[in-house]
Amino acid sequence: MAFKRNLYRLIGLDGSPHHVLDAPYESIEAALGAAKLWCNGQGLRCTIKYKGIGVQVLAGNGTWRTICYPSNCLQTALS
């Protein structure tokens, strides 16, 4: 049996691919790291609409499944 790596992507609060961070990530850690870097840089100047970032994983049937909505950008925006 072949081992299949998961692919992850970052999405906005509406479930669409993130307007800046729409790229495949090979691990959830890589996706969360990219989100954190963006939130602490370019994301600081964005409206709250774009600061909500979620993580999706590519399921075996070819669909994307949302697995979490980290709150680090939203916490920064609301502080």
Can you describe what's shown?
This protein is about 30% helix and about 20% strand. It has about 80 residues and is α+β, with helices and mostly antiparallel strands. The mean pLDDT is about 85. The chain has a three-stranded antiparallel beta sheet. It has helices spanning about 30-40, 50, 70-79; strands at about 10, 55-60, 65-70. The chain contains three helices and three strands, in the order E-H-H-E-E-H. It has a domain at about 10-60.
In short:
With 79 residues, this protein is α+β, with helices and mostly antiparallel strands. Helix content is 29%, strand content 20%.
The biggest beta sheet reads:
3 strands, antiparallel
The succession of helices and strands, N to C, reads: EHHEEH
Rg on CA atoms, Å: 13 Å
Task: Write down how many β-strands occur, each being a DSSP E stretch of 2 or more residues.
Answer: 3
- Coarse morphology: globular
Estimate what percentage of residues fall within beta strands.
Answer: 15-25%
In DSSP terms, counting alpha (H) and pi (I) runs of 4 or more, how many helices?
Answer: 3
Give unreliable regions as ranges.
none
> Which strands sit side by side, in order, in the main sheet?
1-2-3
Alpha-carbon distance between the two ends: 49 Å
Mean pLDDT: 84
Helix/strand/pairing class, anyone? alpha+beta
Helix content: 25-40%
